[in-house]
Amino acid sequence: MTNSEPSTAPPPRMPADGHMWVMVFGDLVIFGGYFVIFMIYRAMTPDDFLLSQQRLDLTAGVANTVVLLTSSWFIARSVAAARTGEHPRAIRLTCAAGLCGALFILVKAYEWATRIAHGDTNSTLFFSFYYVLTGVHLLHVALGLLIMGIVVRELRNPRRRRMVLVESGAVFWHMVDLLWIVIFALFYLMR
């Protein structure tokens, strides 16, 4: 092809649906507000927050971080497989990401049950923030699992297979993972 010949390649486009990006941006703004409020309260009573923070199970937090990062890798590979027409592989990878999401929920449920059994309810400001933020995040994980189910349904049906839906599901799931990274850093690591 010479420089004078028109290109037949499709123009570059942003992956996923624009509406998904608006939703993701909105979620990030809302969570960002939660994070700022958490930091303000933490700055007002750092010793109380540190004392409560030390009661969290760092191993469970690390495990959930590894699980979600692994799920992000699976969903990214699923999108790549779907783009090349490897739909059975994309389905398997999406299901693997979903299994990681379900494992995240189980680990978080175990962690919550353990904390509550030890008397760490929302009676302290730290644990109030902890249960609200991890709870809202958990709802996003559940919604992400529903979205992945829809993606699998799309990939199984040769007449559907809308790439924009597969990409939108991945964008949402990556946002869920990103939010967990910030939550993990704020609640488990920051001293």
Automatic annotation (TrEMBL):
Record's GO cellular component terms: plasma membrane
Predominant subcellular localization, coarse grouping: membrane
Membrane topology of this protein: Multi-pass membrane protein
Swiss-Prot/TrEMBL GO biological process terms: aerobic electron transport chain
Compartments where found: Cell membrane; Membrane
Ranges where the Heme-copper oxidase subunit III family profile domain occurs: 20-191
TM ranges: 21-41, 61-79, 91-110, 130-152, 164-190
Catalytic activity line of the entry: 4 Fe(II)-[cytochrome c] + O2 + 8 H(+)(in) = 4 Fe(III)-[cytochrome c] + 2 H2O + 4 H(+)(out)
Family under the similarity heading: Belongs to the cytochrome c oxidase subunit 3 family.
Name of protein: Cytochrome aa3 subunit 3
Organism of provenance: Nocardia mexicana
